[in-house]
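Researcher: Before we compare anything, I want clean individual predictions. No alignment, no superposition, just each chain on its own. First chain goes here; please echo the sequence and then give the structure tokens.
Model: Echoing the first chain and its structure:
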Amino acid sequence: MPERRFRSTMAKWTVFIVLLLAVLLLTISRLRFRRITELVDHALGSKQVLWRRLIMNLCMSVALTMMVFIQEGPIYQGRMLGYELYSIVLVSFGNLQIPVAVLRVVLALVRLIPHNYYDGDNTGDKTNLAPSLSIFYGMVLGQGILYLVACTLDIFTFIPRRSLARHGGFKGHQLGMETIKLYHGYVLEKCMEKDALAPKKISLSSFAMDSLNSDSPKIQLHGIQLIHNLLQTEPTKTQLLAKLTTCPNTSARLIKMLDWTDPRNATIRLFAAKVTAELAKGLRVITIPWKIQNVSTLLDYGNKQGERGNPLMDKDDDEQETMHDPVLNGSGYHEERLIAVPDTGNLLETQDRSTQQTPIGTSEQSSWIVRCWRCMASIPKDEPLADTDKDLLPALGMSILYNLAGCDQSNCEEIVKATGLIPKIIGFTSYRRSDTTYDTQGKVLVTSSLQLLHRLTSIKGEIGITLRHKISKHAFLLRNLAKILADSSSSQELRKLVAGIIRNLAVDGNTRQEIGCIRVIITRLMQEFLSLGRPLGTYADHKLQKVAGQALAMLAMESAHNCSVMLYETGHVFIKELTTMIHDDKYRCVAASLLRNMCLHARHELNELDLQAISYSVREVLERIMDAEGAELEILICLGSQICKVIPEEFARELEHGCIKDRFVKRLGDALNANMEPSALCPGIRRVILEQVINMMEHDLHYASCFNNCRMMEAVSMVEDTASKAENYCIFLGDVGLMEHREPLTSLVVRVKRFLAVRSTQ
């Protein structure tokens, strides 16, 4: 009999030990013990979560069953079963405070019912026992009631939590409820640091900013996403940006997140890039070290060449294999361009396991009662975070650079200094069409790169010259721009951006000649400007037409080759179209500038039809000169001067037959006197007036008497005394002059005085 009992006891202990080992193994496998984790993974296979939960439940069921049957006698077995059922009921509440509070209330009520506290011994030393115990149990009763009220109210806290989640921008997002729970804990911690009743205003933005400095990736994710949500609406956007701008530590933390290349931090990096793109609109990078370098790392994705290099310069295959991108893991050029962002939920689950933190939302581990209630009270879970077009990391990186370049010129200096940044940006202008997926996301990257290049090439001052030079010397830029223009399926927005970039780069003489050698660029710009074969209807059409015309006007300056290409591109219809556009207010300046350059640089290539079309426009040009001001007046007088040189007879005939000769001469004198101080908007207006006067007197010296009658000699002398270096340039970008004239202004003054002096002696 003792031997049988011993064997039974050993069997029971063996079963318990096996169950204990199974539970311990499953529990420890969630920690970072590689060998144990590999053992469990090998045993459970791919469905680890399902098998782990099933085994845990089976072990608990077996243990509970054995606890009942190892008792001797039905009375003890029934008592153990009652204890287990009572424990299950307690656990089903999901909160032990509720049964504890109920127990407090019940015990207090039981003891407050009249009792004989003295137990028949009513001596004097026990006189105060009954009142003391009544006070004690009254306090216990009050405490239990307060606990019950608190637990009851806690059940309905989902109402203000959902309201706060909506205020934080979490619309239908399960992560929002978890963030609000973290926020409540944060507020409680701050209040407990000092007097709990002291007035404190702890905003969501303060919580979000402090969360960025946490060591927990999970809390960082909640904080960065909350910041992103708050930036979507006013007035929280303005207030939060002001806080971030004045908090260098938080800004620096955001910038560091851009360089987190670990795949587990991909979602944090994504939202950090989105927030930084907004913050960059008012940020000076000189205050944050290494910012441009961190932003530059965002452009590393998708900008790697998939094809092999020069066979004479290739490295060994083994060495190339070790240099594959750790995030993309060598998935090829196509997959590198399609940057996938992991699901937020998966990220949180992974980080929970790695950091061994207690989950904020415990609904999955709670009882079915709590799960049912929370299912009704919680916010529905969002769809997984997708790698949408605008969430591409390179696009966000270029958006950050775009905003930085528009904020302060010191940011542009940092962009210039960043090693390899400009080639990365230009690399995304490569317009390849392989499949539908790439075509969709590739266009996003192309658009982002063109927008950034357009802004960088528009920068004024010395830094602008440096940027344009660095951009224009890239070997593949013009080829990529030409392919975008030549692609009939490219959008108007892309073509407008390309035309603007070409216009900005054409201010440099060498670049202007390089562009002119790519015939397709001028061909496409001519088609867009003249709108050949298509009607103009929308505002976007007119905007593209104007920018294309501006690009052509810049290409035509000081370039006889480019003017000849434009002239022959349309079979000499170009001149007629330009003379027609002069009547349109939207295109008058562009058309006048182009027509002036045609007359100046391609004069000998104009045929009779071209000269006839120009003669028809003389009257319109003269009339517009009478009313124009500023830069428009400079361009029109410049055109009038060249028309007077190309067809002097028709020009003189219009002055005489139109009875506007005296008015025109007076207008030139008044304009010269009114512009004694040249401006950056029209630096060459006095120069073009002097050129107009010279060309008129070269054709007919009798005009000298008209100019003398208008006291032109005095005005010219004033020009000679006030001549400035600024008048030697065609245009100004900021405070830097571009395209310097060959003939100085003083030389023109001498020529005008010579003509006027000759006439006065006759």
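Researcher: Okay. Second chain, same rules.
Model: Second chain and its structure:
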Amino acid sequence: MTAASSGALGWVAGPAAMLAFAGVTALQSTLFADCYRSPDPEHGPHRNRTYAGAVDRNLASRRAAPAMAVRHSLEVADDRCDDDGHRPRRAGTAWTCAAHIITAVIGSGVLSLAWSVAQLGWVVGPACMFCFALVTYVSAALLADCYRRGDPEKGPRNRSYVDAVRAYLGKKHTWACGSLQYVSLYGCGVAYTITTATSIRAILKANCYHDHGHDAPCDYGGSYYMLVFGAAQLFLSFIPDFHDMAWLSVVAAVMSFSYAFIGLGLGMATTISNGRIKGSVTGVPMRTPMQKIWRVSQAIGDIAFAYPYSLILLEIQDTLKSPPAENKTMKRASMISILVTTFFYLCCGCFGYAAFGSDAPGNLLTGFGFYEPYWLIDFANACIILHLLGGYQVYSQPIFQFADRFFAERFPDSGFVNDFHTMRVPCLPPWRVNLLRVCFRTVYVASTTAVAVAFPYFNEVLALLGALNFWPLAIYFPVEMYFIQRNVPRWSARWVVLQTFSVVCLLVSAFALVGSIEGLVTQKLG
């Protein structure tokens, strides 16, 4: 077509037209380059990533209408992607979202609820669970509104919790949030090491009691089994993309529901066989009021560990289709999942307390409130072990990936950091090994195992993790982001209510934190 056009124009007009259009195109590109940022072309806070976005931001909205119409026609024509180019289109609904939340929330935290209700009593125990359910829903609703910046239906998406903190609160808050998140993930690794060793011992004890009677001296140390679990995790840490394997989440979900329902069923069966409901209004009696206060604070920390899911909420919300607006669907899904989870938690905690009263064990399936059927107890603890083998990696891999990125950016020319070496093991495919990964991941797994050996206290560790994470990650950051998202003016009624809500939750979290630290120190010294 170029030859035909030049022939039609002739030797003078043809080349001249090409040069003219080249000049126009160069001028046009220069002008458009200055429109990438608004309002300042060098330091403007707004990036215009599309032609329509630049027209919309730099010209009046009525002039943007033709460009927006073109963009809309392109979106309609290509219905395989979302408004942000995500392929395939998000297809999540309120029910799939609720299923994700329930699967993520119900886990090892359910095992301590009977003990928590026993410390609080028949009135405060269930009431405390209802309060945490309400607080969790409020937190989820605030965070759901922060999924999109600006317009709740068309604004840019924040696909993760840290992305949202970075977008709304800036770099300093992002560092604080990231640090708390990694401390939380590390703590979960410690808690999972403790719980797995306890479950292995419970299987051995159940078989011993079945063979030799309930009064037999069936004592097994826990440190050895923590070391075994640590060795297994060291091996799993070097399997490429282990945490991304689809079957891992499926197995974890099936295992967590299995042992949770077994604990619920055993509690119900024991209560029925007892013929009465044990427990009291005030909970387990203690020798001094101060001891009672510490136990109550630890129980609150355990419940706080079992409920919030703020760290994964935006990732789950990023699976939802639109319309309707994702925040509306997420709020509905949160309501459904919290109602289901609270009902399940109440059943587990209350039936466990009703079955054992003041003797409710710290871990419902390993504290030997139940002796028979021993095979069912073995199966439940095997489910816990399988769940936590994969769960440890789910919580540890983000730390491994952060370390890989951090050192690669700091030392781009280091062979120790960036070079991979191929190892060949008989009967296995070739294994690519990086020296930094070997060292860092070995030290990481060894440290979580060492901390677990030093502080093998299930309830106190869960309470500490719950207290550390509850206020900053589930309350403070969502509230502060919501203020910016909705432009809530200072000292308005909504601002005062939410700040009061945040302060009250801070006091509760501090109370649980002090109690959990006291419990760890007392257990260690006692």
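Researcher: What stands out in the second chain?
Model: Residues 59-78 have pLDDT under 50 and may be disordered. Additionally, Residues 94-525 form a domain with the Amino acid/polyamine transporter I fold (CATH 1.20.1740.10).
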